[in-house]
Write a structure and sequence with these properties.
There is one protein chain. The chain has a domain at 36-118. 77% of the residues lie in helices and 0% in strands. The protein has helices spanning 10-29, 36-46, 48-55, 58-73, 79-96, 100-118. α5 packs antiparallel against α6 (100-118).
């Protein structure tokens, strides 16, 4: 399930294989319908059209948020800044009280930030 990382040192390869074995064992044991990363993937990739109809495209919404925040604060706020603040907010909420939605939303914001950074 997990791709082997290539390293020059045999000791590193052995450690990596051991970590992969643990991860694979956890994935096999886990009820895949309850895997939070799979659920986040569904939200991000499979339901993106539904979300766009409700809120507009994610990157456009984040830029609008940055523009509004810039006006309010009289400071330059970027779309990247908004992503980071939203991720921080979700982690702050999670630190107070666990709610799966906090983690799902954080994963979605992280994926969106990656798209922004990669220029997708």
């Amino acid at each position: 399930m997990v791709r082997t990382l290539q390293r020059n040192d045999r000791g590193d390869k052995k450690k990596i294989r051991g970590i992969e074995a643990i991860i694979n064992k956890c994935l096999i044991k886990q009820d895949m319908s309850k895997n939070i990363l799979l659920e986040a993937n569904k939200i991000i990739n499979e339901r993106s059209q539904e979300k766009e109809r409700m809120y507009g495209p994610m990157q456009e919404c984040m830029q609008r948020c940055a523009d509004i925040a810039s006006l309010i604060t009289q400071k330059e706020i970027t779309s990247r800044d908004v992503h980071i603040v939203m991720i921080a907010m979700k982690f702050a909420r999670e630190a107070y009280s666990h709610k799966e939605d906090n983690l799902l939303d954080a994963a979605a914001y992280i994926a969106s930030l990656n798209e922004l950074e990669e220029g997708e």
